Amino acid sequence: MKACIYGAGAIGGWLGMALGQAGCELGVVARGATLAALQADGLRLRRADGTLAHTPVNAQAHPADLGVQDLVVLAVKAPGLPDVARAMGPLIGPDTIVLTAMNGVPWWFLDGFGGPASGQALPSVDAGGEIARAIPGRQVLGSVVHTSCSVEAPGVVRQHFGNRLIVGEPGGSRSARLQQVADTLQRGGIDVEVTATIQKDIWFKLWGNLTVNPISALTGATTDRILDDDLVRGFVSAVMLEAKAIGEKLGLPIDQQPEDRHAVTRKLGAFKTSMLQDVEAGKPLEIDALVGAVRELGQITGTPTPHTDALLGLVRLMARTRGLY
Length: 325
Prior knowledge:
Blueprint: E1 2-6, H1 10-21, E2 25-29, H2 32-41, E3 43-46, E4 52-55, E5 58-60, E6 71-74, H3 81-87, E7 97-100, H4 130-134, E8 140-153, E9 156-168, H5 176-187, E10 191-194, H6 198-219, H7 223-228, H8 230-250, H9 258-267, H10 274-281, H11 287-301, H12 306-321
Parallel strand pairs: 1-2, 1-6, 2-5, 3-9, 6-7, 7-8, 9-10
Antiparallel strand pairs: 3-4, 8-9
Helix pairs in contact: 1-5, 6-8, 6-10, 6-11, 6-12, 8-11, 8-12, 11-12
């Protein structure tokens, strides 16, 4: 299998290592110091047990230098996706599989799914439909990442905990291509689960990230401090209940209450969310995929979202004043 990673950061590096270990011919689109490191030393992953894995890669700055792939893994932050979609055409042939490994609600979320909302576009994550035109929906597979990784140095990823990936067809089928991708990643060392309800898995993960990510970005607080404040925790719960009501209407029921999820988050200890890390690094924030899309789905389903609206307005304003949105 010819496979390409577009977005050679923490998660892209984790997935790329698995594909390389599984015997794929691995390409990477990268730039700057990451490109130089990958060309010189290949991709390296320091696992949770301290061992260092290595795989050779064909790293290039331009997709055209890699050509058509069997599999393209999109592991970029949502704000960068429109530019990536415009650039990745040379990688995509009629049978290329595009696996999305991103936070939040993807542009294809309602493709063939969502009851009365099925097929509707989501301008909050794909203004003008540019991404959908560049990446044919029939070639997309979805995924949900359950691992914690960080970039230790250019071309070097550190895996902290977790090693699980959920993969699924947007339409829910158990296709041969889905099984092929799952088997390949499993062979490369990732614990892969195949699901017929990938939107439900995306929504459940979002149910937690929707709140603590933007609140951490606003306050600079780690997740333990957010949940230790009674007033803030109450606001978090109110936003989560709005998202839960939206999910019910979309066919994405959540059989937990906010306090159940808080208990899970507390077990992770004091940690900085990815959005807080992006604020500190001066990087664009994934506001629309995590919060804006929830508000938009509330409008589509006729669900009031006053708390979500307030959270979106505040974090968006903060990001705009810092030039991060």
